[in-house]
Amino acid sequence: MWRKAYESGQIKSPVFTDVKEVLEVISKSIPIYIYSSGSVEAQQLLFKYSEHGDMTKFIAGYFDTNIGHKVESESYCRIAESIKVPPQNILFLTDIEKEAEAAQSAGVPTMIVKRDGNAPLSPDAEQRFAMTSSFKVLLS
User: Fold this and answer.
1) Which InterPro entries does the record match to this protein (predicted)?
2) What average pLDDT is seen over the chain?
3) CA distances from 30 to 27, 51, 112, 121, 134 (A)
4) Could you give the percent of the chain with pLDDT greater than 90?
5) Please, which pLDDT band fits residue 58 given cuts at 50, 70 and 90?
6) What HEC string does the chain produce?
7) Residue 124 has pLDDT above 90, yes or no
8) pLDDT at res. 23
């Protein structure tokens, strides 16, 4: 059902403008992977049928909860092993503090992306994690 709605143009995925701009630049030199609670197929549909056009060309691969839950540090270790990159050489962006904690526990540098509508963060989150409101910080 979802696939048909995407393919017919009835649904376009909302993606922040800065995300497309940054993925387009960074993907030329750094492989980008998506890790989501949604299935790999759902992720691919979301990025293929975005408001900004097909963004799948910027993405090297996808992970879902088959690799493990996003709040478990072992999941990030498995991803690092799968892409053959040491955890300390990966940057994980999220808007969920528990996911940031899990990634950080696995040795993965983490940045929390604060956007309107996100769940509130704990009072000490800004001391424990790098923060940004835009992906454009990755270009500087």
Assistant:
1) Enolase-ppase_E1, HAD-like_sf, HAD-SF_hydro_IA, HAD_sf
2) 96
3) 5, 23, 20, 29, 18
4) 92
5) very high
6) CHHHHHHCCCCCECCCHHHHHHHHHHCCCCCCEEECCCCHHHHHHHHHCECCECCHHHCCEEECCCCCCCCCHHHHHHHHHHHCCCHHHCCEEECCHHHHHHHHHCCCCEEEECCCCCCCCCCCHHHHCEEECCHHHHHC
7) yes
8) 98
With beta carbons less than 8 A apart as the criterion, state whether 79 and 35 touch: yes
4: in domain: yes
The CATH number that applies at residue 99 is: 3.40.50.1000
How many other C-beta atoms lie within 10 A of the C-beta of residue 7?
12
- Expressed as residue numbers, the domain containing 125 is 75-135
